[in-house]
Amino acid sequence: MGAYVGLLRGVNVGGNQRVPMADLRELLTGLGYTDVRTLLQSGNAVFTATGTPQRIEKSVEKAIADTLGLTVSVLVRSKAELSTVVKANRLPVGDPKKFLVVFYADTLATDAVPTTDFAPEAVQVGAREAYLWCPNGINDSPVAKAFTHKRMGIGTARNWNTVMKLLELVS
After folding, report:
1. Residue 119 — very low, low, confident or very high, per pLDDT cuts 50/70/90?
2. Per residue in 108-142, is it b (16+ CB within 10 Å) or e — as a string?
3. Cβ neighbours for 22, distance < 8 A, ≥ 6 positions apart
4. Which residue range is the domain that position 103 belongs to?
5. Which of 79, 111, 143 is the last residue of a domain?
6. So what's the pLDDT on residue 126?
7. What is the structure's pLDDT at 30?
8. What is this structure's pTM?
9. Long-range contacts of 93-96 (CB under 8 A, 24+ apart)
10. CATH of the domain at 33
């Protein structure tokens, strides 16, 4: 049994892909996962389970499709992986609401990573995540637009506050 964080992509944003967190907790419990907790309304869950992150992702995606009739990408990180993500950040966080970690399903292709100077914004790229500092906000951020799933592959972003709360919950 291991501790995991599940990140659902694109749920409860602008009224689309509605997944009530009570339903998500019930769904994860039904899959045999234990210690299930959710954070906020944006598809964040922590739980204990057996299996690899990739196997858990597929199980949760299938259960959401079968139970809720939605096609949702799910990214799973182990407690150790999330801890490594936090420790690997080298950028100053500043306002944690304007600092994003974008989690990707796959290793980022070097040729897909933009080399643009985004100043005053900043970016740090890891193997399967990107750290984005957006001091003027996220909505119109050039760096946030450059690191979307359309360019980089399936990914989902969480602000630094959420990342730190998820690490606390999974620990």
Report:
1. very high
2. beeeeebeeebeebbbebbebbbbbbbeeebeebe
3. none
4. 88-160
5. 79
6. 93
7. 97
8. 0.93
9. 93/133, 93/160, 94/133, 94/135, 95/135, 96/159, 96/160, 96/161, 96/164
10. 3.30.70.1280
Residue type (1 letter), 95: D
Of 125, 166, 162, the residue nearest 147 (C-alpha): 125
Task: Yes or no: say if 54 and 68 are a contact pair by the CB < 8 Å rule.
Answer: no
Mean pLDDT of 93-110: 93
Q: Quote the percentage of the chain above a pLDDT of 70.
A: 98
What is the reported pLDDT for 36? 97
Tokens of 149: 């799933």
* Model pLDDT, residue 129: 95
